[in-house]
Amino acid sequence: MSAPSETPDAVEPAFAGGLLPAIAQDADTGEVLMVAWMNEASWRETLASGRACYFSRSRQRLWRKGEESGHVQEIAEIRLDCDRDTILLKVRQSGGAACHLGYRSCFFRRVGDGQLEIVERRVFDPQSVYGAKP
After folding, report:
1. Residue 99 contacts by C-beta under 8 Å, 6 or more apart in sequence?
2. 20 to 30 Å CA-CA from 83: which of 39, 57, 68, 113?
3. Phi, psi angle pair for 74, to nearest 5°
4. How does residue 8 score in pLDDT terms, banded at 50, 70 and 90?
5. What pTM was estimated for this model as a whole?
């Protein structure tokens, strides 16, 4: 039995009026840098600008990655999963850090022996970049 032929799907993610998870991955190394949320407006801005734009749930507004720190994410490639309800952004991260706490990746802690262990070094001091404790 042969597999069904695949046809191109709609380019639009399946937002259905809500938020979808967006995974930012280093385009060269494959390292997962962060996970954020996108809505239709942030999706459209990302496509138009070529830079990652997310929806901040805490601020309840669009969040242009790097708008405060200058550490922007240039889009190299965008992929959608099979259900079009998760967005994968392959990015080139400027400034060396994606995490607002100053680490290259938001996944800088490892679980082991019932504890969290920091396994990366800080790239920048968040207080000097953001002025206050993030």
Report:
1. 33, 34, 105, 106, 108
2. 57
3. -80, 130
4. low
5. 0.88
25's enclosing H/E stretch is strand 20-26
From residue 101, alpha-carbon distances to 1, 11, 41, 59, 78 in Å are: 52, 33, 26, 17, 25
Residue 132 has what pLDDT? 63
Length of the chain: 134
8-state DSSP, 122: B
Domains of the chain: 20-130 (3.10.20.810)
pLDDT-derived band at 2, boundaries 50, 70, 90:
very low
In whole angstroms, what is the distance from residue 39 CA to residue 55 CA?
Answer: 6
